[in-house]
Amino acid sequence: MSTATKTAGRDASATIAIVMPAYDEAEALPGVLAEIPRDLDPRIVVVDNGSTDGTGDVARHHGVEVVHESRPGYGSACLAGIGYLAGSPPDILVILDADYSDYPEDLPLLLAPILAGEADLVCGSRVECAEPGALGPHVRFGNALATGLIRLLFGFRYRDMGPFRAISWEALRQLDMRDPAYGWNAEMQVKALQRGLSVHEKPVRYRARVGRSKISGTLRGTIGAGAGILLMILTLRFAPRWYARRVPLAT
Fold first, then answer.
1. How many domains does the chain have?
2. Maximum distance among all alpha carbons in the chain?
3. pTM flag (> 0.90)
4. Which residue from 52, 62, 101, 160 lies 20 to 30 Å from 150 (Cα-Cα)?
5. What is the CATH number of the domain that holds 177?
């Protein structure tokens, strides 16, 4: 049963927390923090994922909470932020990258369907509104391949696998998120379909990030991310029980 059905008419005073995975984003981070709509009164948690450029210090200087996660991987950083919040969880969790590629001002677009009780998970789709050159040809190709595979195997047409997203905490708990690496976004999007959650996509703006991407900016990162995403989709379709046994829940 969809969480959105159970929480229809959610109060607009719902608590919001933003988890920001960050690896060497000291230069970009101030711009991201400055553009987060403060009228939402979000709790902001920056997860310093082994940075060497003082990212954690920059975050603290701007008055936000900092979690240090030494285990590498995008999923590891997200899981660390979620674990940190678990003692006093918000009503809605937002994942926002710290590289200044997303527009934090678009956050209300992602929150609105959840606040209205119409959705459990809202993913930002970059493909419609990305600035010229912000999404390279290899990124667009990989994105189309992954979303096409999901449509083939699960019958749902995502337009993007972008990282900017919002999910109700109750829905998040149902997903048993586990992936420590590149498959994190795919795991969330596929499991949401498998659990029967209400999923929406909203077009969001996207720009070239500050600095060089650690994933799409390198051949190794691009290949690794693509393989991780496709493998996650296939595993959740054909071997979900094996995956649940093989990859432990974060503690």
1. 1
2. 47
3. yes
4. 101
5. 3.90.550.10
